[in-house]
């Protein structure tokens, strides 16, 4: 979700929304054109030899996977390294995200990382 701002009239909001919509559509079209140029270029190069064909198709697959916004699996995001933060505490830092993801007790860190943070009202 993107915050476009607060507007006095519905017409102002509509104009701003339409301009952002066009801006995003232009970005998508530019990205698609870039991807098609990459694939056309690799197709031309692949006609030279079988070896080039294998290499270019691999590079196109890598480029399209990263640029299509393919989501990574949870397992890949959770892979990390345990880092000692104090004498008896460790935190697992994600290799992909660069942030702590798991406390040394196996719990995901978040807004309520320890039980003392939770308040229950009856």
Quick structural gist:
The protein has 122 residues and is α+β, with helices and mostly antiparallel strands.
Write structural notes for this entry.
- The chain is of the alpha+beta class and 122 residues long.
- It has two domains: 10-70; 76-117, no CATH class.
- It is 49% helix and 14% strand.
- It contains three helices and three strands, in the order H-H-H-E-E-E.
- Strands 1-2-3 form a three-stranded antiparallel beta sheet, with no helix packed on it.
- A hairpin with a 5-residue loop joins strand 2 (89-94) and strand 3.
- Helix 1 (10-46) runs antiparallel to helix 2 (50-67).
- It is flat, with a radius of gyration of 24 Å.
- Mean pLDDT is 65; it is low at 55-69.
Question: What's the helix and strand layout?
Answer:
Layout: H1 10-46, H2 50-67, H3 74-78, E1 80-86, E2 89-94, E3 100-103
Antiparallel strand pairs: 1-2, 2-3
């Amino acid at each position: 979700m993107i915050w476009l701002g607060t507007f006095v009239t519905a017409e102002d909001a509509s104009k701003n929304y339409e301009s952002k919509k066009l801006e995003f559509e232009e970005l998508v079209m530019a990205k698609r054109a870039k991807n098609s140029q990459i694939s056309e270029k690799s197709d031309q190069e692949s006609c030279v030899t079988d070896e080039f064909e294998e290499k270019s198709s691999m590079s196109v697959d890598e480029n399209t996977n990263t640029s299509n916004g393919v989501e990574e699996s949870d397992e890949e995001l959770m892979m990390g390294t345990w880092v000692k933060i104090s004498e008896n505490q460790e935190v697992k830092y994600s290799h992909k995200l660069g942030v702590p993801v798991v406390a040394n007790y196996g719990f995901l860190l978040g807004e309520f990382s320890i039980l003392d943070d939770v308040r229950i009202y009856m």
